Amino acid sequence: MKQGPSIKRSLKYIGLPLVLSILLLVVLLIVLANQRTLELNNLETRSELQATLFAEKISGKLNALEILLDSLAQQTRLMDLSTREGEELLEHTVRQNQLIFSEIEGICILTPKGEKQFSSFYHESAALDAMRMDLTKCHIEQEFSFSSLPFTDQEVHYLSLSRSIEDASGMIARIVALIVCTDLFHEQLNLTSIPGIEQLVVSDSEEAIVALWSSSARHSGEGPEYVNAAPGVEETTLQAGIRSHSQGGKLYTTTSLAGFPYTLTLKVDIQNAMASYDKALTISFSFLLVMVLISVIYITRLGFEVARKEIQQEEILDSLAQKVQERTVALKRLSEQDALTGLPNRRRINNLLTEEIRISREGKGVFSLLILDIDRFKLVNDTYGHQTGDEIIIAIVELLCPLLAGTGTLARWGGDELMTLLPGQTLCQAVDIAQAMRTRIEQARFPQNLHITLSIGVTQFDHDESDVTIIRRADMALYKAKDAGRNQVHTS
């Protein structure tokens, strides 16, 4: 054994795993990168859905409060607040509604001049006074029947929802206002459904904060971060009224509140949101990398051993290859070919029949089966000898094969019986072929000037039967042909 070829073969076995391993790692990196891109897109989609859900919940809450405000306005219209009974009735009504709506911090009744006629708000402040003045301007100067004004008091965000009440002359007699702590809306929102949510801001058209919920300390001093188109935005998408863009490792999603002039902004930290996915991705890639390295080491060591043994085996295999090939050809011929006619023998036709049954049961077609018997062949053998009988069988085969012309397979079933497998042929088509075969033999000349005829049984495969039952039915059809006087074709 030569050392040079052994080293060369070893290098071949070592180099191939290395190349395949590098290609595999590159493919894995590409796949994982694509998967992470898809996950980022999914994060954006989930953020948009979450923002829409939040906006719907907040809009629903504000709509409910607006309906409550209308109800309070109607009730207040009928109350005489100049009397003690009227004030007590109003106070009772206010307390009932504050128990139902926990986010209502107070209910105020104002005069057209902005003076407080009634208030259940827990304290007075400059911010509250400024809000009352702004509220009065909206209803008196701007003639709004309904208004919603945000204001901040002690770093807590509020929203005043107000409705003006007119007297019989059409003049504004009172202004009813709900003071709502919008930060309490947080209790009705599930801000943990998406990992990495840092901030949810509701703001008006002038970027005044209506509501602010943050995962960091409430009094951090940070203002809301808006998603107005600006230079430096890494990626922006706009779909169905929802705008998303990523900037500085943050994902911002904005949408409007239905029925109210406010915009909701959802801020998500991409790194935190993707942390679990990135961790799983890193673990998966590390595991695959370790497995690839182990495989490379194992295959490399195995390559040296295989290369060493390969040369030894080649010498043995080369010497045996020719003998094995010759024996294989001989065995195949003996096992599947009839020695007299060269046709497929009983074993071969049985295998073909089994395969055709499988194909037919899979719904891929039909097939028919013919069994042919030489009439009074025993008498020919007894009278003229087996040599003449063999010559007649060979002559019959030579006459029948051209008739099939690739339509089916003619095989020697045994003795003077032949079998024909006709894939794709129905019973009617098979009968026509059988009649043609019978006529060809009847009209042919044979050794010793003998007149030879065939009896043929024909059947079509039924999907519920086996190879045994279809052969039995073909045999029964053959017996019918024999009993009817021979030289006939019968079906079963």
Quick structural gist:
It contains ten helices and 16 strands. Strand 13 and strand 14 form a beta hairpin.
Written description of the protein model:
The strands form three sheets. This protein has a six-stranded antiparallel sheet with strand order 7-6-11-10-9-8. It has a five-stranded antiparallel sheet with strand order 2-1-5-4-3, sandwiched between helices. The protein has a domain at 346-491: Reverse transcriptase/Diguanylate cyclase domain (Alpha-Beta Plaits), CATH 3.30.70.270. It is built from ten helices and 16 strands. α1 (3-77) crosses α5 and α7 crosses α8. The radius of gyration is 48 Å and the shape is elongated. The protein is of the alpha+beta class and 492 residues long. 28% of the residues are buried. It has helices at 3-77, 84-100, 126-141, 270-273, 275-336, 346-361, 377-384, 386-404, 427-442, 467-483, and strands at residues 104-110, 116-119, 146-153, 156-166, 172-181, 197-204, 209-214, 235-239, 242-247, 250-256, 262-269, 367-374, 409-414, 417-423, 454-460, 489-491.
| CATH-assigned fold name of the domain at 346-491 | Alpha-Beta Plaits
User: What is the typical, i.e. mean, pLDDT?
Assistant: 81
How would you describe the shape? Answer: elongated
Cα Rg: 48 Å
Q: End-to-end distance, in Å?
A: 68 Å
CATH homologous superfamily of the domain at 346-491?
Reverse transcriptase/Diguanylate cyclase domain
Count of alpha and pi helical runs: 10
Topology of this structure?
Blueprint: H1 3-77, H2 84-100, E1 104-110, E2 116-119, H3 126-141, E3 146-153, E4 156-166, E5 172-181, E6 197-204, E7 209-214, E8 235-239, E9 242-247, E10 250-256, E11 262-269, H4 270-273, H5 275-336, H6 346-361, E12 367-374, H7 377-384, H8 386-404, E13 409-414, E14 417-423, H9 427-442, E15 454-460, H10 467-483, E16 489-491
Helix pairs in contact: 1-5, 7-8, 8-9
